[in-house]
């Protein structure tokens, strides 16, 4: 950490996170905020905490933990992350705020326990956003930005302020420069220029940055940041152009999740800066070996699989189809495999499998490879379940190990699936489900019967009756874990709770897909109860 880093927002506009050198690229991760805004990527509090811990372990410089004023639950999630980052050397913790003064005050309440809080104030500045969304004139938007940044400056006794000109790439150049200059004068020490809808070409994006650098008189008092969406496939290219133009902070998400086509994926940025360090001549403090585990964790939690041919982290990136390639790689890997995925914490599923005689040490090693840190009792329970499944399907891959942990080890709540009997005649399906309910230490068995259009529908309705939860199955995805005929069924469901309108993800596994579906549905019901 540089001795020149100032942790007091009142003393200096130039503020840097304390877990980095002053000359490093700042990696601002917004997985927990912009990433969660992606359709179907909602996360429960325990999942957000797991991701926050993985981000801390990876040593990202800034964690944007959420939008504290959006809901009470998001406020609590942001505050929890801030509490986790309360010591020097922790990542800075950002909370997103609109320009109302109440929002600024409430956001600071959520982040002030962090050692380095970051007040991230945003306001749309493009003509279409100001006119159609905000219904404000440019002068009104200008005043809103200045007053909110000044308010943040007045109440923050530590940390710093970031201002984002939402839809910067479609903002009038002169207005963008004037509002950026005003935000810096009011106290912002980071200026973020987002390509909010991923619409800018490489030339347009570069020209916008140069315009701000050349025409904002006080730009030397702030750090420039970019936030690139990937709607036109240019998020990485635009970001690399920005770095070459001297932009210091880059905003990313793990696995590239985010609104619409998503954000710049963290793994692509890290790969470029590490692998082409001579070209970019930039340093980062991030632990590159945590990139793989972090990406796998986020993918598993939000239920979006990593494509097998995804650059850098895909499970089949280093697989060859041509004989010439196989021959060259056999003689020297560098002929057709110019980098080692292990350098980025990537352990391909086929590289590690656990058999029926595996031990705790082997299971723990594999858990660490996929980003899980479990206590001794959970490792012991996981080992027992791995042996159970390996007896039937011969070996347990890392993918199956993840499923075991998510479905049977870390899943908790008052309801535990016990048994289901089901069948159908020519017109209707019927199911009887038995569930254990634990309350104040007492365990009872509840059995209910229901009918439905299909077997899974009948099972879900019976579970609703047994638990007393008014929920509805929205999505039902299945896949086989294992090889050939030696497989176990894995089910992931999306369940809508009519009580709050939120969607919850449940996971289950069993040799019988209908039973796996029942377990997944109960898993989702427990999340509703625990929310």
Brief synopsis:
The protein has 531 residues and is an alpha/beta fold.
Produce the secondary structure layout.
Layout: E1 26-29, H1 31-35, H2 45-58, E2 62-66, H3 72-84, E3 92-97, H4 101-111, E4 117-124, H5 127-134, H6 138-155, E5 160-166, H7 173-186, E6 190-195, H8 202-215, E7 223-228, H9 235-244, E8 249-252, H10 266-275, H11 277-280, H12 291-302, H13 323-331, E9 353-354, H14 360-369, H15 376-393, E10 396-397, H16 398-409, E11 415-424, E12 429-439, E13 442-452, H17 455-467, E14 471-483, E15 486-497, E16 503-510, H18 513-530
Parallel strand pairs: 1-2, 1-8, 2-3, 3-4, 4-5, 5-6, 6-7, 7-8
Antiparallel strand pairs: 9-10, 11-12, 12-13, 14-15, 15-16
Helix pairs in contact: 2-3, 2-12, 3-4, 4-6, 6-7, 7-8, 8-9, 15-16, 17-18
Structural commentary:
40% of the residues lie in helices and 22% in strands. It is globular, with a radius of gyration of 25 Å. It has 18 helices and 16 strands. The protein is an alpha/beta fold. The two termini are 38 Å apart. Helix 4 packs parallel to helix 6 (138-155) and helix 15 crosses helix 16. The longest helix has 18 residues, at 138-155. Residues 1-12 have low confidence and may be disordered. An eight-stranded parallel barrel has the order 1-2-3-4-5-6-7-8, surrounded by seven helices.
């Amino acid at each position: 950490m540089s001795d020149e880093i100032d942790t007091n927002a009142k003393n200096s506009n130039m503020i840097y996170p304390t877990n980095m050198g002053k000359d490093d690229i700042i990696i601002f991760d917004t997985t927990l905020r912009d990433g969660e805004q992606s359709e179907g990527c909602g996360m429960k509090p325990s999942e957000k905490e797991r991701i926050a811990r993985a981000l801390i372990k990876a040593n990202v410089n800034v964690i944007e933990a959420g939008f504290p004023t959006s809901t009470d639950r998001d406020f609590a999630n942001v505050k929890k992350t801030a509490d986790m980052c309360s010591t020097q050397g922790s990542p800075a913790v950002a909370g997103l705020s609109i320009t109302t003064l109440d929002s600024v005050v409430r956001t600071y309440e959520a982040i002030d326990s962090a050692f380095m809080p970051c007040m991230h104030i945003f306001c749309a500045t493009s003509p279409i956003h100001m006119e159609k969304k905000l219904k404000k004139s440019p002068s009104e938007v200008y005043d809103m930005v200045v007053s909110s940044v000044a308010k943040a400056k007045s109440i923050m006794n530590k940390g710093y302020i970031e201002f984002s000109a939402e839809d910067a790439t479609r903002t009038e150049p002169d207005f963008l420069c004037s509002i950026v200059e005003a935000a810096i004068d009011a106290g912002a020490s980071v200026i973020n220029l987002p390509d909010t809808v991923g619409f800018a070409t490489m030339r347009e994006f570069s020209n916008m940055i140069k315009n701000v650098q050349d025409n904002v008189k006080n730009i030397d008092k702030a750090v420039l940041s970019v936030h690139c969406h990937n709607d036109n496939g240019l998020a990485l290219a635009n970001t690399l152009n920005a770095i070459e133009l001297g932009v210091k902070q880059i905003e990313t998400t793990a696995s590239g999740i985010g609104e619409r086509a998503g954000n710049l994926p963290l793994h692509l940025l890290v790969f470029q800066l590490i692998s082409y360090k001579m070209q970019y001549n930039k340093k980062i403090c991030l632990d590159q070996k945590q990139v793989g585990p972090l990406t796998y964790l986020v993918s598993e939690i939000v239920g979006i699989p990593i494509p097998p041919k995804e650059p850098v982290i895909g499970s089949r990136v280093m697989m060859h189809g041509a004989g010439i390639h196989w021959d060259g790689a056999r003689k020297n890997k560098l002929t057709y495999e110019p980098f080692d995925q292990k350098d980025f914490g990537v352990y391909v599923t086929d590289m590690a499998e656990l058999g029926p005689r595996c031990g705790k040490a082997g299971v723990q090693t594999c858990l660490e490879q996929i980003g899980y840190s479990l206590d001794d009792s959970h490792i012991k329970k996981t080992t027992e379940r791995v042996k159970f499944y390996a007896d039937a399907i011969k070996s347990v891959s890392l993918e199956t190990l993840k499923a075991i942990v998510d479905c049977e080890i870390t899943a908790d709540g008052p309801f535990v699936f016990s048994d289901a009997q089901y069948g159908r005649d020519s017109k209707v399906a019927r199911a009887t489900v038995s569930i254990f309910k634990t309350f104040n230490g007492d365990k009872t068995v509840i059995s209910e019967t229901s009918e439905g259009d299909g077997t899974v529908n009948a099972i879900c309705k019976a579970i609703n009756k047994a638990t007393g939860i008014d929920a509805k199955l929205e999505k039902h995805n299945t896949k086989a874990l294992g090889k050939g005929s030696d497989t176990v069924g894995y089910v992931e469901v999306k369940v809508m709770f009519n009580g709050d309108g939120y969607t919850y993800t449940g996971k289950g596994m069993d040799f019988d897909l209908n039973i796996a579906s029942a377990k997944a549905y109960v898993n989702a019901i427990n999340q509703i109860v625990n929310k």
